[in-house]
Amino acid sequence: MTGRLRVLGVAGPKKAAKASSSSPGKSARYYPADDVPRPKHSRAKKHNPPKVRPSFVPGTVCILLSGRFRGRRAVFLKSLESGLLLVTGPYKVNGVPLRRVNQAYVIATSTRVDVSNVDASSIDDSYFARAAAPSGGAEEEEFFEKDAAKAAIVSDVRRADQKRVDAAILKVVDATPLMKNYLGSKFSLNKYDKPHKMIF
Amino acid sequence: MGFSRYVEVGRVVFINHGPDAGKIATVIDIVDQNKCLVDGPEEITGVQRQVISYKKVSLTDHKVNIQRNARAKTLKAAWAESDTLAKWEGSSWAKKLEAKKKRASLSDFDRFKVMVAKKQKSRIIAQKIKELRA
Predict the structure, then answer these.
(1) What residues does each domain of chain B span?
(2) A109 and B113: CB-CB below 8 Å?
(3) Whole-prediction pTM
(4) Which residues, including other chains, have CB under 8 Å from residue A30's CB and lie 6 or more apart?
């Protein structure tokens, strides 16, 4: 552990190297007695965010295929650092909130909604992070209470963001005939539909 | 009732298999019991002069007045004279093919619009029938 401590006033290896190079004839006056810790050389590469299919352009109406909102149509806003897609129903139209979805479980359609006036810059992956659970020893009673279903609490920040984003999108959606009904409807296949031959 | 469509020189056929599938052509000559020589004409239908199996074609109601082994130029003139292309496009067969093609090219939103239109149509029909029955 002593090696990890930094002692003030004592020159490190950098300074020692500099001192030795400044006077070529003499040997270095300073030599560190202790082993100086160096950061471990890491081979880990910094990963780029995963690629998102080119069919996902901001404003693309997409069909969600898995999860609680499967079959719902939603508007794609942007792709996040994690490679997930940020979508919104809009919430007012079909109940899909601002939400991250995996692009593997989404069909992009050729229909686009103009989202140039939507500001989603404040929303990133950390925005969706879970709030830390209050720590501390739980009483037995409390412990069992956890099993009971609790109503989801939506923060005021999220409420406000949802409202702001939806208002901007709805303005455009209302301008296109049938678009609101389209977003409100669920996607389904019948017996005679051939999804591999369909154009979305 | 006998047959009304024959494999004969001048018969317009619909090609339903191979690279020219979906196009129409004219029978120029009969090779044997299995195949015939057809020509679009290429300038009008895009089918080159070739020997084709009867299995790959369907006979249509249309016929152009040409001699056996007519040249491309003569064939083209015969088509123009009888206005065969317009006749084909006006037929319910061609119209159905066109509709099928259009349906296949619809986007998800378009299909939704069709669904809504269909509902409106059947609603109007149901209402009219109700009025007539009353």
Answers:
(1) 11-90
(2) no
(3) 0.74
(4) A11, A15, A16, A19
